[in-house]
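Request:
Um, any thoughts?
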Amino acid sequence: MCPELFKIGPFTVYSYGLMLGIAFIVASYLLSLEFKRKGIHPDLASEVTFLALIFGIIGAKLFHLFDEWDAFLQDPIGEAFSPGGLVWYGGFLVALIAVYINSRRRNLPFLVLGDAAAPSLAIGYGIGRIGCHLSGDGDYGIPTNLPWGVDYSNGTYPPSYAFRGTEIAKNFPNGIVPDNTPLHPTPIYEFLLGVIIFFILWRMRKKVDVHGKIFMMFLILHGTARFLVEFIRINPKILLGLSEAQLISIILVAGGIIGLNYLRLNPGLVEFDPKQIKYTPKKK
């Protein structure tokens, strides 16, 4: 694990922050390519990405504070402004709302935007998970004997703390999981799944003639992938033996299936004319 990559004077470059930045740069570039292909000015992709970045971080932090409410009450300033503690689904949902509102302001049909952004979301998520892996921030999985099990002892959230009080810890001496215990590298699994989903959606994008279908497929594929990976992650189960992320994944998958069916019954639901978009690029 390598939470801190290097220092430049008083500034420290963290692996998670760097990978998060790369994720947004790659996603913005791919979105600009799709906008250009659809006849939308590619500069609008930067605006969408900026909104997703700002509101995504806000949402991810807010959901983390809700999940760690007791810790937040004990140290509200420290918890609110700590560099760690970001919940993906919180960021995704809040960013989605912000981007939706902006798409209405720009007169850009949200489903058209969603189709263009879906491949970017998939690969951006995967790249971000590489940051989680390098920082060892607790997104790893349960102990494993598989040859690719990873030692996260040098991460920012060591296993001895992450597994404290869990059923898994009861299987170890004194109820403590040693920090060097090999664990499932679930961030790597999610990266690989993100790459696979990206290529599926990227190949689909020129073959689909119904606006919204690619976005619905993203909801189904991403939701399914996250639901399955959660079975070997350490997140607490809150309902019916499922974690919070799994419950949200079920909602996303259900929404994608319902959406696909609705689009099938109403293929002309979205009418799109790039000339109707309210966006004037700044002169360079």
